[in-house]
Amino acid sequence: MSLDETIAALADPTRRELLRRLARKPRRAGELARGFAVSRPAIFKHARVLKRVGLIRARKHGREQIYELAPAGGAAVRELIVKLEEVGRFWDVALDAFKRYVEEKA
User: Which residues 6+ apart lie within 8 Å of 58 measured at CB?
Assistant: First the structure.
């Protein structure tokens, strides 16, 4: 799974809500879809995106699918956080340099 795919998957608020729900506990498919303003098929399209990037997984329990956070998903999110912190440090340095430049010219 690439960093870009992880970012794209997390960019959607519905997918983030699915992750929040699964962070509390694994859920059956119907339970996971309950309460959203979009259709159940739309929810499962979102779930497929999260599965494809490795953030969640589904396991069979009889005839039901049980959705849960994927163990590797935590590593992907931690990697994303590290990269975003790097970007933040870059902007801190760039903005400090710009501030010094403006102050010297004033």
Answer: 29, 47, 51, 65, 66, 67, 68
Distance of alpha carbon 27 from alpha carbon 86, whole angstroms: 35
Average pLDDT, the chain: 92
Q: What pTM does this model have?
A: 0.78
Distance CA 58, CA 69 (A): 9
Among residues 78, 63, 26, 76, the alpha carbon closest in space to that of 47 is found at 26
**Rounded Cα gap, residues 98 and 104, in angstroms:** 10
Q: Quick one: pLDDT at residue 61?
A: 87
